[in-house]
């Protein structure tokens, strides 16, 4: 795939003076070249371009299948929008670097897969505690451990929720197509800025390595949330539910720490009330915004008795099975979770209320079905498939038909 | 009583006061800790260089030495997770090369758990100044063996003696590609101030290893409880680089080689990255 020219001019051609005096917005200029065009891309590539549209100007990462293409595209494209790509020595370093870049004013992202995601967990907690906006793409592959390194899975859904230690809330969203990957990457950046928190784009190897048509929209069509910068006098870590974010070099003498801290950032690790106030606010700022963050696709029919709930790649055969069942005369409801965490409780409860039993196809041994069970008095039936193969439509249909 | 009078008088030094968050002083370091000496030498160097505090970013990890700048130094401070200061600092420096990015860390933090980041930051030769306070043990957690603890020493986790060889962090960083490396001890305060100034002036990765006493945690393990005993030892055991070059391995046993280990002018990492962007922009401007 080649969207743009990648020839690099010789150093002798450089007119540095002209560059410094130039008023050209290189990000816009470059994106203008690719907007309103149709391409045939991998999910990974779509994520990279989504990041560019969202204003990402820093990416740090470490090669890992099936996420490497995200890094490869951004290594090529970021310098063209005056952003920076750094390949770090490991995934711990990668997430560390993006957090540092965010505090230096950057819109930063990293991308990895299960093993790297495991390594990042400590610093995801650091980003939560320090209220650092950043995006972490986890292209899920078959685990545990090295598992089937090149094969897709959805086995990190609960790790995304609970992977880092301590009480916390997290935002995770999961795309089901290449085009949606593009938009959800932008969405991930916007959510991270809005709530000043790390956001996980929970992809899977199936969508990452799926090639589909994708349209790059015009820049005007895409809404990008810019950072609210804290000024002198504002608290960097309190004062309101989501405080504005200051950055280094403002002369504010920021003190950023993963230890429990006062609204001004200074450490206080001995007071019960300071910890309770801080951690409860970090929890509530996301939990209380669940309605705003929740995104689902509902496809309901009248008189339905059966419901199918899925997300990510598994939602594709799941929807296929629903359509096939309907063609056979069965009234089946379909709910696709787009936001996974915070769990879209209201939409799920409404869905459960419509049907007598719920099937949950997913590429793991029942991680979201377990969450659905928490809200359901009705039978919740996991339709699990692991081993690096996605369900077929008929495998899910057989379950629905009770074969 | 003594504490209150210090609190009331705060830290009113006419010149170096502006580099400290005065309302937090005095420090919480143990009696006799070398961190106070490092703090003093560092602030003295910064003051002599007349650096603007709003241009300084301190990135630290976990451990006693991380507390030297965080919270005592005035400047932007990023107090990170254990061992990862250099990786965080890399993100800061790439985005804001106009800021002076400084890491102050302990041996366990930056050469132990964060050893890989240290090697690679040095290899990239990124413009960050690192001051490694080497107290030869994990002091904050109570005196456990660290990657720099000498062979044969008894610690909380080597109760029968240490059977590992210590890491020569300065030599490792020099070999990995840093532009500047030197090593001093808390006894050598004047050369140390000079080395801090040199390191802060270097374009590229600079690293100063500071052998420092920990009379409380480490001292209780090696039965040396007085800071002055450590300083006398550093005085007697130190050998200057020039002198060490003419000594045999046997003669250097147990000695601390002090002085400049490396000074060169390799290309700096962020400058290279930014140069690529300028080249691409020049093409777009044409």
Describe it for me?
The complex is a heterodimer of chains A (403) and B (286). Chain A has two domains: 22-221, Rossmann fold (3-Layer(aba) Sandwich); 297-400, Rossmann fold (3-Layer(aba) Sandwich). In chain A, the strands form three sheets. In chain A, strands 2, 3, 4, 5, 6, 7, 8 and 14 form an eight-stranded mixed β-sheet that branches. In chain A, 37% of the residues lie in helices and 21% in strands. The longest helix of chain A has 18 residues, at 178-195. Chain A has 403 residues and is an alpha/beta fold. Chain A has helices at residues 16-21, 26-34, 43-53, 68-77, 91-103, 114-129, 157-162, 178-195, 205-208, 272-287, 290-293, 315-327, 345-354, 367-373, 393-400; strands at 37-42, 58-61, 84-87, 108-113, 134-142, 148-152, 171-173, 198-204, 211-216, 255-257, 296-299, 306-311, 332-337, 339-341, 357-362, 380-384. Residues 1-16 of chain A have low confidence and may be disordered. Chain A is globular. Chain A contains 15 helices and 16 strands. With 286 residues, chain B is of the alpha/beta class. Chain B has eleven helices and eight strands. In chain B, strands 2-1-3-4-6-5-8-7 form an eight-stranded mixed β-sheet, sandwiched between helices. In chain B, strand 5 (180-185), helix 7 (189-201) and strand 6 form a beta-alpha-beta unit. The longest helix of chain B has 17 residues, at 269-285. The model of chain B has no long low-confidence stretch (mean pLDDT 94). Classes of the chains: A alpha/beta (403), B alpha/beta (286). Chains A and B meet through helix 1, helix 2, helix 5, helix 6 and strand 10 of A and strand 2, helix 3, helix 5 and helix 11 of B.
